[in-house]
Every structure is written in C-alpha cells, then in structure tokens.
Write a structure and sequence with these properties.
binds flavin-adenine dinucleotide, 19 strands, globular, alpha+beta
Length: about 475
C-alpha cells in the first residue's frame, strides 16, 4: 500500500512545495518492528524522528494527517527554534520561501500605551530572534526533511495513520500488568488505523515510543491517564486559542517588521495578536486561559470580531482588510506552567519505553503562547535519551531542569498580566524608559538575562529608577 504517490515539487521550480503532497513511500507491513516509533509529525515528532534517524536508528514516524495540512497557530517561530531548524537542515529551505522577518515586538496596554521591544539583526544571526510564517508551510518543510532523514536511515513514514492504542507488556515480554500499574508497564508498540475511518488496523512494534501527537496525543493519554491515573487536562493550565488570516491590514504590508501583542481591555486576562506572515497576510488571533474563559463565559471568536470592528486602535487598520475564507479556527494550548499538586512538573512526561514531547508533554510557554521551540527542544532531548539508553526518569528530570525556570517565570508574568492596572503602569513606564526597553529585549532574546527576573532587586531598580 502506498500513502501518497505525488512527488514533492522542489522549491527551485518556483512551485510552493508546501502546498503539494509529500511522498513518504510504502506503508510498512503489519507486525513490522523498529528501534523507535514516533507518533505525530508536527515540530516535536519531526524533530525526534529526525534526530533519531541522524543517530542511525530505524524509526517509524506516524502522522494522522496527510500533507498538505494546516495547523492552528500564531505562526511565530522564535529564536529557540532556529538552532534546531538549522541542525535538522531546514533553515536554508525555510529562508528560500516567503516569510516575515521579526525585528521587534510591540506590546500595548489596555489604556492604549505601547512599547516596542527591538530584536536586532544580530539576534537573528545568533539564532535568538526569528520569523513568522504559516505553520502549513513551516511544518511541511520540517516534516519533509525529517521524513527523508528517517527513510534514508532505513526507517518508514506513514501519513494518514491514526494511532488508536499503545501496546504494553511487563517489560519481559509477559502480559500487560494493566491500567494503573504505572512503572510495572513497558511500551511495546502501537495499533494504527490506516486509510481513514473505515481503514484497516495494523500493529507496529518498538521498545521505545515518542508521544508527539499534540494536546490530545493518544500516547500521552496512555501514560498520564491510563498508566498512572493522573489528570491530563487541567483547565487552569490550558489555553483556548483562536486564529484567522487577514489580508490588507494597515501597517502589516511588509515582509519584515514587528509582531504585535495587545492587552486589550475586553480581552484581559488574555491577549490579541497581529503576527504578519509575509505577502500582506496577517495571522490575527486571541488567546485566554480556559479556566478564566469558563468563568467569564466569553467566546473567543466573538471577542475577536468585536475588537476588529470596534476597538479605536484597530477598527481603522481593518477598514479595508478582508479575512481569508476558511481560516477561522480554534485549538488549545497546553501550558507548561507548574501545577500546584503535581510531583511531576509540569506533568508526567515519561514512563518505561515512552517519552512525551512538545504539546503532548504540556510545554507551551504560559506567557507568550510559544510552543514550537519547546517541541523541537524536547524532540532532540527524547531522541538523545533513547539513543543513549538513559532511564526514562532522567528524561522527566532533564525536561524540567532545562525548561522549568523559564516556564515558571512566564507563568508569573502571565499572572501579573491579568491585572489591567499593572499592565497600564508597566507599559506606560516602558514607553518612556529606554533602560526598561533594553531589559525587555534582553529578556526575550537571551536566556541568561531571564535569570535577572528572579532578582527582586534588579527588577525594582529597573522599574522604579
Ligand atoms: C491558536 C494558537 C496559537 C499559537 N501560537 C503559537 C506561536 O505563535 N508560536 C509558537 O511557537 N507556538 C504557538 N502555538 C503553540 C504551537 O502550535 C504548539 O505548541 C506546537 O504546534 C507543538 O508542536 P507539537 O509537535 O508538540 O504538536 P502539534 O504541532 O500539535 O503536532 C501534533 C501532530 O500529531 C498528529 N497526531 C495527532 N493525533 C495523532 C494520532 N492519533 N496518530 C498520529 N498522529 C497524530 C497531528 O496531526 C499533528 O500533526 C499556538 C497554538 C495555538 C492553538
């Protein structure tokens, strides 16, 4: 059986390769065995599969969708992503396609003050500032490159493969000790439905699985809920996100410039964003923590329509703009904010034979909403742990050691940004104080500078004097 037969059209032909199907070769035989199986072909899964293949592993990469496919996102690809994009060999391809080069971030307060945080050219060169471009394009380029790496290393790639179930045993080839048996279980493979709803089921085997299926990842469910009886979705740590693409928004005509984050009074405690993605198209969206959304009984789509039509800062900018039909869609962002009652932070991300990456491990930045970078980072981490045959508990530890400090910091900032008066005060101050603008640039571009946020003395000095 063959998944997609059309050959990928190369970028050099002037074709938009990311709008074409991707040829991933033959679907492997039922019962085939691999060194590792990666479930999900977004940034996290592509990264894990790509790094595993580069290390010589025989991988099966399974993706539910069939390319070309859309992904609901704000489309900002930050500096953290770029080193992996480069390492996996996609950076040049990406830069050869239309994209928006981010040179700064504009923040505005509910009162209407605004501050611009510049991200200079050197930050891009140092891979510390990034781009924005549609995820349909970014994901296709990344998946295409990684699926090639997988196949070159002797592995297989399956599109249109919907993973239904994770298979377990007792670690020695014996019976699965059953749900809730936690550490006594060991993953041994997956059951996949191939070829749509009425398609056939196939079983594939590997002693190592990577769960990269996003916020509803079936592998994550089998770890968090089924094996350990823990909560997968916590509405205080999940965010609702809604996105539309618009053309001809005033101030967003160029392929280089600022992305905009607006703390609009009607949207607090969430924010409204304008992220240009090149070619005069802008990703316009809105996000709010689910628990807060529930309490306020707000609907994101209606909120966004109201801001665009009526808000004094935006109604003129949208006066001649048109929404691209079919682009209005919502999805969820599983935040990496620390959970109060959990021993595992932000929640369990590994067990015998399984490592979860990206959204499947709930690792989206709780302030900025960025999750692509952490998906790529953990994809590399999971691959390295598998190749080095490290105990599964080490993975959970490294994820939190590397990402915990910034996720915790961002959570603090998210909570502060729920207060309109504080945003008004902070942005008003930053608008007038170059030292504060410089600090914000450093905070966004440099990981080291984020350490300063932990120092109350540094913060007080910068804010007050
Ligand atoms: C509205 C919104 C705005 C956002 N804005 C930004 C932003 O500007 N910048 C940023 O960095 N991040 C942003 N994010 C977050 C970002 O989209 C995610 O963090 C990122 O996509 C995570 O990558 P991933 O590979 O872990 O998961 P995903 O990108 O969700 O990929 C998961 C893949 O798994 C596949 N899959 C699912 N189920 C199965 C199954 N059963 N079998 C096989 N495959 C399966 C899916 O088809 C998908 O391709 C935003 C998210 C939303 C919702």
């Amino acid at each position: 059986m063959r998944c997609v037969v059309t050959m990928t059209v190369m970028i050099e032909n002037g074709e938009r390769s990311w709008e074409q199907p991707i040829d991933t070769g033959e679907v492997p035989q039922n019962g085939s065995t691999f060194d590792a199986i990666v479930v999900g072909g977004g940034p996290g899964g592509s990264s894990a599969a790509g790094y595993l293949a580069k290390a010589g592993s025989k991988v099966l990469l399974i993706e539910k969708a069939v390319w070309p496919r859309d992904k609901i996102c704000g489309d900002a690809v930050g500096g953290k992503s770029l080193s992996h994009v480069k390492e996996l060999g996609v950076k040049a391809d990406l830069e050869a396609t239309p994209h928006f080069r981010v040179t700064g971030i504009v923040f505005s307060s509910p009162k209407g003050n605004s501050v611009r945080v510049p991200l200079p050219e050197e930050d891009v060169a140092r891979l510390e500032a990034g781009y924005s471009l549609p995820r349909a394009q970014f994901d296709s380029l990344l998946f295409n490159r990684c699926q090639q790496l997988v196949r070159d290393a002797g592995g297989s790639v399956l599109q249109g493969g919907d993973v239904q179930e994770v298979l377990f045993d007792d670690g020695n080839g014996g019976e699965d000790p059953g749900e809730g048996s936690g550490d006594a279980r060991h993953a041994r493979g997956v059951v996949v439905r191939v070829g749509g709803r009425d398609g056939e089921e196939r079983r594939f085997y590997a002693r190592e699985l990577v769960g990269a299926g996003g916020y509803r990842c079936p592998v994550a469910r089998s770890v968090v809920e089924s094996s350990y009886g823990e909560t997968m979705m916590d509405r205080d740590h999940y965010c609702g996100g809604y996105r539309e693409y618009w053309r001809n928004v005033k101030g967003c005509e160029e392929n280089v410039g600022d992305i905009e984050i607006h703390f609009v009074d009607t949207v607090i405690p969430g924010y409204f964003w304008l992220f240009p993605v090149s070619e005069n198209v802008v990703n316009v969206g809105i996000g709010m923590v689910m628990g807060l959304l529930d309490k306020q009984k707000k609907k994101l789509r209606a909120l966004q329509a109201d801001v665009i039509a009526n808000h004094p800062m935006f109604k003129d900018r949208f006066a001649d703009a048109e929404m691209i039909r079919g682009s209005s869609r919502g999805w969820q962002l599983p935040f990496g904010s620390p959970r109060k009652k959990s021993k595992m932070q932000p929640r369990r991300s590994s067990m015998n034979g399984i490592r979860l990456v990206g959204d499947a491990a709930s690792l989206v930045d709780p302030f900025s909403g960025e999750g692509v970078g952490n998906a790529l980072v953990t994809g590399e981490m999971a691959a390295r742990h598998i190749v080095e045959n490290l105990p599964f508990k080490e993975y959970q530890k490294e994820v939190w050691a590397v990402l915990g400090p910034e996720l915790t910091n961002s959570y603090r900032m998210q909570k502060l940004s729920r207060r309109s008066w504080l945003l008004n005060w902070f942005v008003g101050k930053a608008e007038r104080k170059p030292a504060l603008q410089e600090m914000m640039t450093e905070m966004i571009a440099s990981k080291e500078a984020q350490e300063n946020l932990h120092s109350p003395w540094f913060m007080m000095k910068t804010l007050l004097f």
